[in-house]
Design a protein that fits this description.
The chain is of the alpha+beta class. The chain has a single domain, classed as 3-Layer(bab) Sandwich (minor pseudopilin epsh fold), CATH 3.55.40. The protein contains two helices and ten strands. It has helices at 2-10, 14-65, and strands spanning 69-73, 80-85, 128-129, 134-137, 141-144, 150-153, 162-163, 169-175, 178-184, 190-193. The relative contact order is 0.15.
């Protein structure tokens, strides 16, 4: 009885501690890839919702202010995007609308210095940066008209907005090998495509 009592109070042996640590290391090694995958999917989910919210905001701004509003992707570099008010009048293009300067806060700060409708832009949003390694592809920009309808630019080069086909256009948000898509149709509806 004394021997059992003494062993119960003695604690763990070195061999028992090493076995427990070995099992812990093996379980950690198995779980790490799954943890990395979960983290990538979490970042991708954040990015897709951020892009979708900015598209919805642009549409609401276009309708309420009765002014065309664009969301420019990869502006000025990959993984960044910005909501900008179209400065030109219908049928009278403004060179500033096609300028990459619209992507930065230097020439067109956010928030606007004033909300006077005569001194535009007033609807430009902040420059958004997606999480590291997340990119946007498939479309260079979306323009929402004052009636809520949308036009898209899939050219990838010079900005050239055109009517969106019936099936819509797709913005693809990618993180490593994981991809999620947002579809924008000609009526201006924005949908996150569920996997």
């Amino acid at each position: 009885m004394n021997e059992r009592l003494r062993r119960a109070r003695a604690g763990f042996t070195l061999v028992e501690l090493l076995v427990v640590m070995g099992v812990f290391v093996i379980m950690s090694a198995v779980a790490m890839p799954q943890l990395g995958r979960a983290l990538d999917l979490y970042r991708l989910g954040i990015a897709i919702r951020e892009v979708e919210r900015e598209l919805q905001t642009a549409r609401v701004n276009a309708v309420t202010a009765n002014r065309p509003v664009r969301v420019l992707f990869n502006c000025p570099v990959a993984g960044q995007f910005r909501r900008v008010e179209v400065l030109g009048e219908p049928g009278l293009p403004d060179a500033r609308d096609d300028s990459l300067a619209r992507c930065g806060d230097a020439a067109f700060p956010y928030p606007a210095p004033d909300l006077d409708p005569l001194t535009r832009p007033n609807l430009d949003g902040p420059l958004h940066r997606l999480p590291v390694g997340v990119t946007i592809g498939g479309v260079s920009g979306i323009e929402f008209r004052p009636n809520g309808t949308a036009r898209g630019d899939a050219s990838g080069g010079a900005i050239a907005f055109a009517d969106i086909p019936v099936g819509g256009v797709t913005a693809t948000v990618t993180k490593d090998s994981h991809t999620r898509t947002i579809t924008i149709n000609g009526m201006g509806r924005v949908f996150i495509v569920r996997p």
